[in-house]
Design brief:
Length: 179
């Protein structure tokens, strides 16, 4: 299937979809669109018997969020890779890597948990980053972190986290934070 799609939240883009399936599952062989001045590609599989199960591989290349976020810097783009699964109520983000060319900033997330309605739970969520500064572009950063990590477990009502970061800035002396 090839079609033009747009909505209030999504700018117009040409979408290409190749899929096949039966009464038990749908195999997403290829999804590709060029929008936001970049490319989004995905493959995956959805099955609904005996329970909902989803496998997703999603990549974005050189997306500009300027059309969605007015203050997004013109030259900044977004590249990402996501590999995730859902089995019934349990999810597993095997890998979510994100970079912001032309900056050196990189983020990586992995985690797993449960989406049970009464008590959603994170077994673990681990976010790491490298070379992040604010503002994202420019020579005069207010703050920058060469490396950091955040580990989170639990629910919204009962959680634990561990934060470590190296932090410095124009008026911030270099320091290491561990909370």
């Amino acid at each position: 299937i090839t079609t033009n799609l747009s909505s209030q939240q999504l700018p117009r883009g040409l979408w290409h979809l190749t899929a096949q399936g039966n009464q038990q599952e749908l195999l997403l062989e290829k999804l590709r669109t060029e929008l936001l001045q970049g490319v989004i590609e995905a493959t995956g599989k959805v099955s609904w018997q005996p329970q909902l199960a989803i496998q997703l591989h999603l990549g974005t290349h050189h997306l500009s969020l300027k059309d969605l976020w007015q203050d997004w810097p013109e030259e900044l783009t977004l590249d990402s890779q996501l590999v995730a699964n859902l089995e019934g109520d349990n999810f597993n983000i095997k890998r979510f890597d994100l970079s912001l060319p032309p900056t050196a900033a990189k983020f990586s997330l992995h985690g797993e948990g449960s989406l049970v309605k009464q008590q959603p739970q994170l077994k673990i969520a681990a976010l790491t980053w490298q070379q992040v500064q604010w503002p994202l572009l420019g020579q005069h950063a207010i703050a920058n972190s060469t490396a950091g990590r955040l580990h989170f477990t639990g629910s919204l009502q009962d959680y634990r986290f561990d934060l470590y970061s190296q932090l410095a800035g124009h008026q911030i002396p270099g320091s290491q934070w561990h909370i």
